[in-house]
């Protein structure tokens, strides 16, 4: 195949005699290199150029590129798809499933899409900063429409490629305007945070967050590390439903975190990927961000609609930068646009229209909140059922109540790498190797099976 592809490249229409010379050599199985030599030795410059192309195809210029490992989260879904076992369960990716373990498109999303079809909206490019109606409602949803940061036009909001793209844009802003500044991230955190800051060339380090002994928050460790970070660091915080631990600070603890950040002149950088999914209430889940905004602090907030509106593949989210004045916000926004332009030029319109239709329409907004409560409620009920099943099956006296204390889509089981691998290899339960399971991918019917798998992995694998 390689040879024939090369012949068509290398012999458009030289002389007849040249074609004749070529044929027997190739039939005898001449290698690409021999053919090239033949060209080089006997034909003029014009053909020599073509031959060089053939040599390049033979020894790849990409030879030094090694195989990348599968992604620790999205790679789990690939492995799941390849498994044919009937009991297989995908608890890897944080994506909501119905009780039948099917993906779910929200009714309000379908209604919003119908509205869009009725209006016959066009597919012209959006401005670099995204859809104006989306940017307005997304900032209002986050801070509250009556919040002074909104009324005083102090928020620079730019539509991003979902949560990930919005975080990446903010990282680019940090890299450009705060050279050398460090981002401190929780240990552990969502795995892609490190990739995002690495690729944006923003230095990062970790602050303590999870205490394996209590399977709870290491609050003292967190505060000590935030205090110890160089003044003016960016502190990455999960607005609610911390991923992967499912452990959030209490309202009192949030106040102390805000005190320390203010004292140290750090800049809070919120990642809000689960607004509405932690408590079922959009306002309650935004209370951490609002606490900081109400103190007049300058903050960054990345938002995502992947989970709460189920718009995973639409890639819709935003980056909001709260500034001390409207004038600063305007300048920051202009620079965010400047960063976005060479990266992806302008964002996709479909998801932005869905969000602006749902959030901007009182009737659809009300329906959305109901659907979100249903989703959050289903997750809470499987959380309870898993806990009950574990208590019933595990006779060792181990306390599993931490599962009930965690919130959001995930449960951090405390299973180590080998135990997590046993879950997959023996029980066909797909999950990340840090012991995280997505309860959004669990049904009531599978709780007992999952509990069997956890008890076996916990007690029989060290
Ligand atoms: N931030 C956090 C804390 C997240 O958990 C996620 C998604 C995102 C941002 C980004 O989501 P976007 O879809 O880009 O808006 N985390 C999920 C989804 C899979 C993944 O790793 O992207 C998860 O399973 O952890």
TrEMBL record:
Name all Aminotransferase class I/classII large domain ranges: 87-454
**Top-rank lineage group of the source organism:** Eukaryota
User: EC annotation?
Assistant: 2.6.1.1
The record's listing under InterPro entries reads: Aminotransferase_I/II_large, Asp_trans, NHTrfase_class1_PyrdxlP-BS, PyrdxlP-dep_Trfase, PyrdxlP-dep_Trfase_major, PyrdxlP-dep_Trfase_small
Q: Which SUPFAM superfamilies match?
A: PLP-dependent transferases (SSF53383)
Under catalytic activity, the entry for this protein gives: L-aspartate + 2-oxoglutarate = oxaloacetate + L-glutamate
| Keywords, in A-Z order | Aminotransferase, Chloroplast, Plastid, Pyridoxal phosphate, Transferase
GO molecular function annotation: L-aspartate:2-oxoglutarate aminotransferase activity; pyridoxal phosphate binding
Which miscellaneous remark does the UniProt record hold?
A: In eukaryotes there are cytoplasmic, mitochondrial and chloroplastic isozymes.
Subunit organization: Homodimer.
> Which NCBIfam families does this chain map to?
PRK09257.1
What family does the database annotate?
Answer: Belongs to the class-I pyridoxal-phosphate-dependent aminotransferase family.
Q: Output this protein's name.
A: Aspartate aminotransferase
């Amino acid at each position: 195949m390689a040879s024939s592809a090369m012949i068509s490249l290398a012999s458009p229409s030289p002389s007849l005699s040249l074609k004749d010379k070529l044929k027997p050599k190739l039939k005898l199985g001449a290698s690409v290199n021999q053919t090239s030599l033949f060209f080089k030795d006997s034909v003029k410059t014009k053909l020599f150029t073509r031959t060089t192309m053939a040599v390049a195809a033979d020894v790849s210029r990409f030879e030094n590129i090694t195989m990348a490992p599968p992604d620790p989260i999205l790679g789990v879904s690939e492995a799941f798809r390849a498994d044919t076992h009937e009991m297989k369960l995908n608890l890897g990716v944080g994506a909501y499933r119905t009780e039948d373990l099917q993906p779910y498109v929200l009714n309000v999303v379908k209604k919003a899409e119908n509205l869009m079809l009725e209006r016959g909206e066009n597919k012209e490019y959006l401005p670099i900063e995204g859809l104006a109606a989306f940017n307005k409602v997304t900032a209002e949803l986050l801070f509250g429409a009556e919040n002074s940061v909104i009324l005083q036009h102090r928020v620079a909001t730019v539509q991003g490629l979902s949560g990930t793209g919005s975080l990446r844009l903010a990282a680019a802003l940090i890299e450009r305007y705060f050279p050398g500044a460090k981002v401190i991230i929780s240990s552990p955190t969502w795995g892609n945070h490190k990739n995002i800051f690495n690729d944006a060339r923003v230095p990062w380090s970790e602050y303590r967050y999870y205490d394996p002994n209590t399977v709870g928050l290491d609050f003292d460790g967190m505060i000590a590390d935030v205090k110890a970070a160089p003044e003016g660091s960016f502190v990455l915080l999960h607005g609610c439903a911390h991923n992967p631990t499912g452990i959030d600070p209490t309202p009192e603890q949030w106040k102390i975190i805000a005190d320390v950040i203010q004292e140290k002149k750090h800049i809070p950088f919120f990642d809000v990927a689960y607004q509405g999914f932690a408590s079922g209430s959009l306002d309650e889940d935004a209370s951490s961000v609002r606490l900081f905004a109400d103190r007049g602090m300058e903050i960054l907030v990345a938002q995502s609609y992947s989970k709460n509106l189920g718009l995973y593949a639409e890639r819709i989210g935003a980056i909001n930068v709260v500034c001390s004045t409207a004038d600063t916000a305007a300048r920051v926004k202009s620079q965010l646009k400047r960063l976005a332009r060479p990266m992806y030029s302008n964002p996709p319109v479909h998801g932005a229209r869905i969000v602006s239709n749902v959030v901007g329409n009182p009737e659809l907004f009300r329906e959305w909140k109901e659907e979100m409560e249903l989703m959050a409620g289903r997750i809470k009920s499987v959380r309870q059922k898993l806990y009950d099943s574990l208590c019933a099956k595990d006779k060792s006296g181990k306390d599993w109540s931490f599962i009930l204390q965690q919130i959001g889509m995930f449960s951090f089981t405390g299973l180590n790498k080998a135990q997590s691998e046993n879950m997959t290899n023996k029980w066909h339960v797909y999950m990340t190797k840090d012991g995280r399971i997505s309860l959004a991918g669990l049904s009531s019917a599978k709780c007992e099976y999952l509990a069997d798998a956890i008890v076996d992995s916990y007690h029989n694998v060290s």
